[in-house]
Design a protein that fits this description.
The chain is an alpha/beta fold. It has 12 helices and 13 strands. It has 2 domains: 76 residues, Metallocarboxypeptidase-like (Alpha-Beta Plaits), CATH 3.30.70; 290 residues, Aminopeptidase (3-Layer(aba) Sandwich). The radius of gyration is 21 Å and the shape is globular. It starts with 12 loop residues before the first strand and ends with a helix. Bound molecules: zinc ion (ZN). Pfam families: Peptidase_M14.
Length: 428
């Protein structure tokens, strides 16, 4: 087993009441990956306001890849800690009077288990794609091609760019012709949030293949990007189920930038990290990643028509509007709030599940350089949302495939509310 001396890391220093876990110097990518293989999972429930704020801060600010902290619910956080780092972690958190509950050894590579569940899931009768399993990028591309061949008058595919590893970045343009307001939806920006491409695909399927929804494409066009970060998505299927970022090569052997901190609006402010190994690394410069650069170009190109932008993430179960970088409210915050609240009501009526509604900073956390803040603050799209789908599984991101139909159908009820608003307010 690896010992501490194998990994020259400064750690566990208490400074001004805050634990400081410094960057792991001299770690190459391979050794870094190796040391992450054996992890212990803890549950932490903050008892004081200060403890809660500290955990939220650590979740984005100082989280540097040695351990990962994930908010599990309104009250509890899960922290995954490498085995070799256990003692230092317990000492540091114990010194701050946190109550740590040991949940046990974490099984890291759960991709194969997922695939086992996936293979046994039957397809929905009326769809040539199943919504009872998660799909690989190739399968998703095949379904897009199928739609464009089967419904050539309604669906047009476009490769709007190429990923770092040369995968096509593909969108489906749903239109019955003419110049109409556009609803733009992206998903899969964060690789491990598998429920989000499933959601985007379900929206496509429901818009195109369900006759009762024909009215949804008559006066509004849709641009749907099912997988905005295909390199990361594939990596989360083949190597690390909980990979979040892109796959670009960085200094010190580290890989990946957080695409949702890489947009050129209030870039590298609070709520994003400058450390390459961090889960929220903002990148060496704004739009350093082809995935964010091409998505922003796509949005700019269609700016006159795009009236509503939704970026799907998981797993906070909320509908959040700008801003994430500041407490200041956009001029039409009330409008965005009311619209999201109406969508939430429609969602609730389907299965009785509640989604929080508020600004990104209110319902999630501080973040800068997000696609939604950029789409609103820099591109100037009227209505912008980060739509966080529900969580499940061991770490929230690994919602079991059996839950897909519940999520995608209830959220589609909310999508219909957004559509109605765009149609009423932006069609001539
Ligand atoms: Zn996300």
């Amino acid at each position: 087993m690896a010992t501490l001396s194998d990994f020259p890391v400064q750690h566990g220093i208490i400074t001004n009441g805050h634990p400081v876990f410094d960057r792991p110097h001299r770690l190459t990518g391979e050794r870094f990956a190796a040391m992450q293989n054996a992890n212990i999972l803890y549950e932490v429930i903050p008892f004081t306001y200060e403890q809660k704020k500290l955990l939220e801060f650590l979740e984005t600010g100082l989280e540097i890849g040695i351990w990962q902290i994930v908010r599990k619910s309104k009250r509890s956080f899960h922290i995954s800690v490498p085995l070799y780092f256990r003692k230092e972690f317990e000492n540091a958190f114990g010194a701050l009077s946190f109550n740590l509950k040991l949940l046990g050894r974490e099984v890291k590579a759960s991709t194969s288990n997922h695939q086992k569940i996936c293979k046994s899931a039957p397809a929905l009768r009326d769809a040539p794609i199943s919504f009872k399993k998660y799909h690989r990028y190739g399968e998703i591309q095949d379904y897009l091609k199928y739609l464009s061949l089967e419904y050539p008058n309604t669906v047009c595919l476009q490769n709007y760019g190429v990923s770092y590893e040369n995968r096509p970045l593909t969108l489906a343009y749903v239109s019955t012709g003419g110049s109409k307001p556009i609803i733009l939806i992206d998903a899969g920006m964060h690789a491990r949030e598998w429920i989000t491409p499933a959601q985007a695909l379900y929206i496509l399927h429901a818009l195109i293949e369900k006759k009762e929804n024909k009215y949804l494409i008559e006066k509004v066009d849709w641009i749907i990007v099912p997988v905005a970060n295909p390199d990361g998505y594939e990596y989360s299927h083949t190597v690390d189920r909980f990979w979040r970022k892109t796959r670009s090569k960085l200094k010190n052997g580290a890989r990946g930038v957080d695409p949702n901190r890489n947009f050129d609006f209030q870039w590298m402010q609070d709520g994003a990290s400058r450390h390459e190994v961090s889960q929220t690394y903002c990148g060496p410069c704004p739009f350093s990643e082809p995935e964010t650069k091409f998505l922003s170009r796509l949005i700019i190109k269609n700016l006159n028509q795009i009236k509503l932008y939704i970026s799907f993430h998981s797993f906070r179960q909320c509908i959040a509007y700008p801003f994430g970088y500041t407490h200041a409210s956009p001029h039409n915050a009330y409008e965005m709030h009311q619209l999201a609240a109406r969508a939430e009501e429609a969602i609730y009526r389907v299965h009785g599940n509640h989604y929080d509604v508020g600004s990104t900073l209110q319902v999630m956390r501080k973040m800068s350089g997000s696609s939604t803040d950029w789409a609103y603050g820099a591109a100037g799209i009227d209505l912008c949302y980060t739509f966080e789908l529900p969580g499940g599984g061991t770490r929230g991101f690994d919602l079991p495939a059996s839950a897909i139909p519940t999520v995608v159908t209830e959220v589609f009820a909310g999508i219909k509310v957004f559509h109605k608003y765009v149609q009423l307010n932006y069609t001539k």
